[in-house]
Automatic annotation (TrEMBL):
Protein name: Metal-dependent hydrolase
GO cellular component: cytoplasm
Keywords in alphabetical order: Hydrolase
Coiled-coil intervals, chain numbering: none
Keyword ATP-binding found: no
Source superkingdom: Bacteria
Family, similarity comment: Belongs to the MYG1 family.
């Protein structure tokens, strides 16, 4: 099996698209060319060839008259075209390989849509010139573009087989980066899905106002925010750092405004200073923003949760 994409400078959309196909067809050869005969003979032609026809493995968007777009109106480039066809299958493959979890088809589709909304559509927007640069000019598309050889590389390599091999090597490195991003995106979403029932079954304390999670790495924010309006604080065991944490509950995903803040007197204090203010001997720290604090023991964090509730109720 052969996957062909264009030679010359590459972009994030073609690197993402080929990476998806390479995940699903790991034995496939990747070739970079614009020679019509090689493009025609390939099993997949990505971002080259002037044809969009998933049935024959053709995923180009440069041809005259192309108007493919998402329901939202965001246009497709090659990343989105391949993801549209193979995204759910790719998600399922990565979930099985990296989490050991077999996703139901509807869950794989749901996660693929979420990854398109969070990542893929922006690669397409950048490719078609419809997106502004990320703050600082270094969004994912720019990071991938940085893998292209610059004029100094080309001056040293010259032209011909050596230059082509170097550019293919750089394209492969970009694909590997994007593959890691895909894996992490899938692992995060599988973890979030599996965590829902754990959070729902977690111990509730202080008349329903404090939730205790035995594993602080379990994602809890969305479930608590949507389903547990009475909870004001979450306490958890940070297994990796062997300490306990208390967290406030953000009122929305993008907000630092909380249902209840930690006491103002704790802000920015650490160790002995925080212990003196709280009366908790093993208190560790409280962030200046008053959204997280720590204690070494479960008893310590329970005491801090009780104090935080008392301060909120005054």
């Amino acid at each position: 099996m052969v996957i062909v994409t264009h030679s010359g400078k590459f972009h994030a959309d073609d690197a993402w698209a080929v990476a998806v196909l390479k995940i699903l067809f790991p034995q496939a050869e990747v070739a970079r060319t614009r020679e019509p005969a090689r493009v025609e003979a390939a099993d997949f032609a990505v971002d080259v060839g002037g044809v969009w026809d998933p049935a024959t493995g053709r995923f180009d968007h440069h041809q005259k008259g192309f108007s493919g777009a998402r329901p939202s109106g965001v246009p497709y480039a090659s990343a989105g075209l391949v993801w549209r066809e193979y995204g759910a299958r790719c998600v399922g493959t990565l979930a099985a390989a990296h989490t050991g979890h077999q996703l139901a088809d509807d869950k794989a589709v749901e996660m693929a849509h979420a990854i398109d909304a969070d990542i893929v559509q922006y690669l397409d927007l950048s490719d078609v010139g419809a997106a502004k640069n990320a703050p600082g000019g270094y969004g994912l598309s720019a990071v991938v573009s940085g893998f292209n050889p610059n004029w100094l590389d080309e001056q040293n390599l010259g032209y011909g087989d050596a230059a082509d091999a170097h550019r293919l090597s750089q394209f492969t490195r970009a694909m590997e980066l994007l593959t890691d991003i895909m894996i992490n995106a899938v692992k995060y979403r599988v973890g979030a899905m599996l965590s829902v029932e754990l959070v729902r079954r977690a111990e509730v304390l202080e008349e329903g106002r404090v939730l205790f999670l035995e594993n602080g790495a379990v994602p809890w924010t969305q479930v608590v925010r949507k389903e547990m309006p009475k909870v004001l604080f979450v306490i958890s065991h940070n297994i990796a750092e062997q300490r306990h944490m208390i967290h406030t509950i953000p009122v929305s995903p993008d907000s630092f405004t909380a249902r209840a803040d930690l006491p103002e007197a704790w802000a920015g204090l650490r160790d002995a200073q925080l212990a003196a203010v709280t009366g908790v001997d093993d208190a560790g720290f409280c962030h200046n923003g008053r959204f997280i604090a720590s204690a070494k023991s479960y008893a310590g964090i329970r005491a801090m949760a009780s104090l935080a509730l008392q301060a909120f109720e005054k």
